Amino acid sequence: MDKKFRTKAKFENGLFKPSEPVNLSSGEEVELIIIRDEKILDISGDISDEDLMNLASKNPSFDFLKDEEEDIYSIDDLKKRYK
User: Fold this and answer.
1) Residue 22 domain-assigned?
2) pTM over 0.90
3) Are 19 and 8 in contact (CB under 8 A)?
4) Which residues, other chains included, contact 56 with Cβ-Cβ below 8 Å and sequence gap of 6+?
5) Does the residue 4 lie in any domain?
6) Structural domain containing residue 64
7) Partners of residue 17 on adjacent β-strands
8) What is the largest CA-CA distance in the chain?
9) DSSP code of 4?
10) Rounded to an integer, what distance in angstroms lies between the CA atom of residue 47 and that of residue 61?
11) For the chain, how many structural domains are there in total?
């Protein structure tokens, strides 16, 4: 079986019920990534690049990048300037 696969599931009475059979042994541990808001999914069911960037920009672990001291490059570092 693949280490990674995707399926939808319903949450009922405290349990996730997959919409299709999954080939797992009883008691096998898995990691779940839960996406509730279907608006962040594109047509293929994948999270779009833009949505990933938006999620990362709102993540407080990246707040250090807003510090001017972290911006080590300036306009003068560019080989070619675009107007």
Assistant:
1) no
2) no
3) yes
4) 62
5) no
6) 41-69
7) 10
8) 61
9) -
10) 20
11) 1
